[in-house]
Amino acid sequence: MTRAFCMLAIELLVPMSLTAQALGQRVASLGDGIIRLSFAARPGVCGTGNGSISIDHGDEEWEGDCERGPVRVSLRVKDGAVVETHTHVGGRWRNRGEPATDLGTLPAASAATDLLVLAERGSEAEEELIQAAALADSVVIWPRLVAIARNTNGPMATRRHAIFWVGQAAGQAATRNLDSIAADDE
Fold it and tell me: Where are the alpha helices (DSSP H) in the chain?
């Protein structure tokens, strides 16, 4: 009983950044393959499961037949780095005949953090990683997206994508004057 209590206490005290390192380490150690993860979608996010994702801002009089989650992310890894990402909302994984490491359903906040860590490492799939992170429930990522947008060493397309998702995640208050960042280095 005491050992179980100690293990639970340790798990609760482990900082979130360790989970980000864990996903990064899994990617690096995988070599080549696919990693799958799922997490709760933020309110208003729905999808058909086949890649069509909608964000309902609650101001429309019509509602489609979208599934409200979960967000499902597939990371294709080559030589220990993410080279391709697919994000779906709703639906379910199916076996395509190639092995995949399924991490199951993760807490949305740690999944978003993990995905942004991978995006900041210079992945070929930075834009898709940002999109997936932006769909996570109960997490505030726009300050980190602003940092990505301001990183003049990052690719311009990634910086613009971060600005787009800042607008989706934080609205008008956070996006004031960001157009000047997108215009840098042109």
Answer: 2-13, 16-30, 108-120, 126-134, 142-150, 156-170, 172-175, 179-183
Q: Which long-range contacts (CB under 8 A, 24 or more apart) does 147-154 make?
A: 148/116, 148/119, 148/120, 149/178, 149/181, 149/182, 150/181, 152/184, 152/185, 154/126
Residue 146 is encoded by which pair of tokens? 């602003």
Cα 118 from Cα 140, distance rounded (Å): 17
Q: What is the mean pLDDT of each run of 10 residues along the chain (186 residues)?
A: 43 42 79 93 83 71 77 93 92 85 93 90 84 93 91 86 83 56 60
- Dihedrals phi, psi of 73, to nearest 5 degrees: -125, 130
The two tokens of residue 12 are 């609760």
Read off the pTM: 0.76
